[in-house]
Specification:
mainly beta, eight-stranded antiparallel beta barrel, Porin, 13% helix, single chain, two-stranded antiparallel ribbon, 11 strands, 290 residues
Length: 290
């Protein structure tokens, strides 16, 4: 969940104009090939703590524009699955996550948010994000970055190039904005974020033969390309045919839930009223006498 503190939407477009700044805490959750199939367990075990900073500009009572910067972590492990084949596959990873997004929040209705009352405004939101990730795994007591290794033959002639660690994604979701005072809102929200990569976890669709990777990308890349021998207690590598199924063919997602508190810095129709009594005189149209 996320908290966002900001200003409440007004009854008119002019009075709704406002700028809010805030921050919040929540969870960032991996959603992909290493999911166990148990939704509750996946939400619990695939999530890491996330923090965010946000700026919200509300030009009208119907929508807001938002910039958000989030820092989090996510993880996944086959060992947590109830399926034997998945536990034997034996992949696991952890990754930091940085997400910078521009979003539109649409909120055509609000309830009980007249002046002096507690207000609730539901909203839907989408936009465009630029995110950075870097999957790592533990092997023999050491932590290794996976992308540079090319565990699916990346970088070998005839195979794909190494995937980019910074890519675009599309968040979509919504939540509730709670007006707790004239200056402060609390926003509870959840997003699913569609990525255009299958490598948040470094697990793609197909295995590449162990010896092909060994000869081109080295011993460590070959060992981490297939973790089944460790799960089965084997001393020899699996000699799989290149193209054997490894993971699903669909791209990965990550989920964001947060609570954000934001403070209203300005509000249309009220900003210039603060000048009253300050000695500042607004210019008047002069009258020319004949």
């Amino acid at each position: 969940m996320s908290f966002i503190i900001g200003a409440s939407s007004g009854s008119s477009i002019l009075n709704a104009q406002q700028l809010s700044l805030g921050g919040g805490l929540g969870l960032s959750t991996y959603w992909g090939d290493l999911n166990s199939g148990n939704i509750g367990a996946d939400l619990m075990h695939n999530s890491g703590l996330a923090g965010q900073l946000t700026a919200i500009y509300q030009p009208s009572s119907f929508y807001s524009l938002r910039m958000n910067v989030l820092f989090g972590r996510m993880m996944g492990s086959d060992a947590l699955s109830e399926k034997q084949w998945q536990r034997e596959r034996n992949f696991s990873f952890q990754s930091r996550l940085t997400d910078v997004s521009l979003r539109v929040m649409v909120h055509p209705w609000s309830f009980g948010n007249k002046k002096g009352s507690f207000g609730v405004t539901p909203f839907a939101s989408t936009g465009l994000a630029l995110f950075n990730f870097d999957p790592t795994t533990e092997y023999q007591g050491m932590i290794y970055r996976l992308q540079p290794l090319g565990t699916e033959g990346q970088g070998i002639a005839g195979f794909q190039k190494k995937y980019n660690l910074t890519q675009f994604s599309v968040p979509f979701g919504g939540g509730l904005k709670l007006e707790v005072s004239e200056k402060i809102d609390v926003i509870l929200e959840a997003y699913a974020v569609k990525t255009f990569t299958d490598y948040l976890d470094d697990v793609g669709h197909k295995y590449v033969n162990y010896y092909t990777i060994l000869n081109e990308n080295g011993l460590l890349a070959a060992q981490l390309s297939d973790r089944t021998p460790e799960a089965l207690g084997l001393t020899e590598p699996m000699d799989r045919t290149t193209g054997s199924q490894k993971g699903g063919k669909f791209g990965d997602y990550y989920l964001l839930t947060s609570i954000t508190v934001a403070y209203k810095l300005s509000s249309g129709g009220k900003v210039f009223s603060n000048l009253k009594g300050s000695g500042v005189v607004c210019p008047q149209k002069s009258r020319i006498r004949p």
